[in-house]
């Protein structure tokens, strides 16, 4: 869990992150972050929209691990549509987390409803990005990236960006592989982070995954996560259950063969995922 990828800007990022989407604020978030760090995770992923930054920050502060040994990501929400709004949102996230800097700050969605029919995503993202870039310059953020962006959203952003995004965080799991945008990321040196790498739990009963797991004496969750790693992605499994938090970090004694990877590559679209954001339309 201390292994790292090197981002396009030279910063190192731990290859597995602890996801906190749908983790309730309060003791649950604080304790699960503490459990994760105890289990060896060094990378925590949150967002303003998850409404748990305060508790995640407490977990970080009470983990017993020094801040500079941890990698922390948060995200700007859809209601932020101006430069000034983004400047304030960055400071608000830092204050809630109780941190002087975050390692990675992402634009959460490319084309949120408030600006879709008004200024459009090009201007909104360019303005928010400028605020993120300035925060990098003054040391409040180390790296900046995007989430849920399609190639055309990134192409538009690159027209005005001074700093290119180093990460695109996407809903990627064996049943939803996002081939086009993942290929675009590879071509542009943008790391794919996989949120909901277990399909929010939905993919764990897919028979082919279960069969591979049984063969290795591992769990289907571990197989899905290792597939993500062996594809070169950065999985962000979420759990509030201590045993699962540990299990999801025990991936390094498992090696999937090329044939097994090919089998899992073939699972795209095998099940209907209950929370597939692609179906929300943007
Ligand atoms: P819980 O948080 O109650 O432990 P994803 O990371 O794809 O969003 O998936 C998160 C969901 O999968 C949560 O409901 C989580 O439950 C569940 N989950 C996480 N890890 C495991 C695991 N190792 N085995 C079974 N279910 C898991």
Automatic annotation (TrEMBL):
NADP found in the keyword field: yes
InterPro entries associated with the record: AKR, Aldo/ket_reductase_CS, NAD(P)_OxRdtase_dom_sf, NADP_OxRdtase_dom
Record-annotated active site: 50 (proton donor)
Annotated ranges, domain NADP-dependent oxidoreductase: 16-267
Name of the molecule in the record: 2,5-diketo-D-gluconic acid reductase
Taxonomic placement: Bacteria, Bacillati, Bacillota, Bacilli, Lactobacillales
Keywords: NADP, Oxidoreductase
Pfam families associated with the record: Aldo_ket_red
Domain of life, source organism: Bacteria
